[in-house]
Specification:
Helix content: over 70%
Structural class: mainly alpha
CATH topology: Four Helix Bundle (Hemerythrin (Met), subunit A)
Distance between the termini: 34 Å
CATH class: Mainly Alpha
Radius of gyration: 14 Å
Number of domains: 1
Shape: globular
Length: about 140
């Protein structure tokens, strides 16, 4: 992989994930506007697309799951579940931002990564399969 392209991806991902974290923090402080969760989905979807293209598995798998969860959460009026979504996603974003900041996207701990994937899978299972997992069309 071209080092310059990868560095551009790292820089953009850090900014985008930080924006998603700020939005989630605002949602936690005032959990009335579920559209914020959809906005988070748009941000992590952007990172997911580039990560998948560049085959950065540490980032793509988690962003793909967070994207789907964000979009599903934005469709339900369940403050308790959505608060759990926000809290879980904040911890995953912290993990991803740590990987970015420590230059560990390609040398990550697979056990920790697997635990993060499991958390998101459990959370995803709490939503109806009828809900869309992508941006509204």
């Amino acid at each position: 992989m071209d080092k310059e392209i990868f560095q551009d991806f790292v820089n953009e991902s850090e900014q985008t994930l930080a924006q998603a974290k700020i939005l989630l923090g605002k949602y936690v402080a005032s959990p009335v506007d579920v559209k914020v969760l959809s906005d988070v989905g748009i941000l992590v979807d952007r990172v997911y697309g580039t990560a998948a293209t560049l085959k950065v598995e540490s980032m793509s798998a988690l962003c793909h799951k967070m994207k789907a969860i964000s979009y599903m959460a934005a469709q339900v009026d369940n403050r308790i579940l959505n608060s759990i979504v926000a809290g879980t996603m904040l911890s995953v974003l912290d993990y991803l931002l740590d990987l970015v900041k420590t230059n560990a996207l390609l040398t990550y701990d697979k056990n920790i990564h697997s635990q993060m994937v499991q958390r998101l899978d459990i959370l995803s299972s709490k939503f109806s399969s009828d809900l869309r997992k992508t941006v509204a069309s």
